[in-house]
Specification:
- The structure holds 2 protein chains of 2 kinds.
- Chain A is of the alpha+beta class.
- Chain A has helices at about 1-15, 25, 35-40, 105-110, 115-135; strands at about 50-55, 55-75, 85-95, 100-105.
- Chain A has one domain.
- Chain A has 5 helices and 4 strands; from the N terminus they run αααββββαα.
- By secondary structure, chain B is an alpha+beta fold.
- Chain B has a single domain (about 20-115), classed as Beta-lactamase Inhibitory Protein, Chain:B, domain 1, CATH 3.30.1450.10.
- Chain B contains 5 helices and 4 strands; from the N terminus they run αααββββαα.
- Chain B has helices spanning about 1-15, 20-25, 35-40, 90-95, 100-115; strands spanning about 45-55, 55-70, 75-80, 85-90.
- The longest helix of chain B is centred in the last third of the chain and has 17 residues, at about 100-115.
- Chain B is globular and about 35 Å long.
- The chains are: A alpha+beta, B alpha+beta.
- The interface of A and B includes residues 70 and 115 of A.
């Protein structure tokens, strides 16, 4: 039993090394922030970097992963039972123009935005993400 | 053992009813009054306060700060009223990235005020 508990703790520790953005961190972002300032706030590095060009303007895109929600999937066994959550992880794209943060969100949020410039960019971003995922 | 697990699940379910969630956020609509919003959500806000912004100092906005529970994580969540009408609600980052500069300023000011009083 003790070995099982120890193995579980080790597994939890290993999995927790994988970091995701959470909403309370994203809440600290503001339009116009520099890349350095954003990275300082997020305390994380992007999993991918690429550019998209729309109407002759090139935007830098940093791809992070965000935990959008967690589902309660059950309870652990044993005498000290505790809730088990399954995290839903989405790609989260930070868009920079001239080195300044212009927009951030999931692909869905880009396509649903009321910001016209971003809604135009979202189509190109969607294509680029699909292209990169197919190459992988 | 089964009884213990079942009672834990029941306790979790009951507790989750008393938390502000995306279900609450989806139940409110633009233009609702303060009392309408309060009647729609399952949990009262953590804080409520007035703010003014630099770009429109004559206007006053009423801010509610909720703690939104989204599975295992919690986040601040704002609802902002102007003249007792719900103007906008969302995560602070949704205010910050909105194309409307006034909403950007409201979000930034509301978070700064909340940080002072929480």
């Amino acid at each position: 039993m003790a070995i099982k508990i120890a193995a579980f703790i080790v597994l939890c520790t290993l999995f927790s090394c994988k970091s995701y953005l959470i909403f309370n961190t994203i809440n600290k972002l503001h339009k116009g922030m520099t890349k350095e300032a954003v990275l300082k706030v997020l305390e994380d590095k992007p999993v991918k970097e690429f550019t998209v060009t729309v109407n002759g303007q090139t935007y830098d895109v940093y791809d992070f992963e965000v935990k959008t929600y967690s589902n309660l999937v059950g309870m652990s066994g044993g005498t000290n039972s505790f809730p088990l959550y399954q995290d839903n992880i989405d790609d989260y794209y930070l868009l920079y123009f001239n080195g300044k943060l212009r927009y951030w969100g999931t692909l869905v949020e880009y396509s649903e935005t009321e910001d016209y410039e971003i809604s135009v960019i979202s189509k190109e971003l969607y294509n680029k993400v699909n292209l990169l995922n197919n190459v992988k | 053992m089964k009884i213990l697990v079942l009672s834990m699940l029941c306790a979790c379910s009951l507790l989750s009813c008393a938390k502000f969630s995306l279900t609450d956020a989806n139940a409110i609509q633009k233009g609702m009054s303060y009392s309408e919003v309060i009647s729609k959500v399952s949990k009262k806000p953590m804080k409520e306060f007035d703010i003014t912004i630099y770009s429109a100092p004559s206007k006053k906005y009423f801010v509610q700060v909720y703690e939104l529970h989204n599975g295992g994580d919690n986040s601040d969540y704002l609802a902002v009223f102007e003249n007792d009408k719900l103007l906008y609600w969302g995560y602070p980052y949704e205010f910050n990235r909105h194309p409307d500069a006034t909403l950007n300023e409201i979000g930034k000011t509301a978070v700064a005020e909340y940080e002072k009083i929480k």
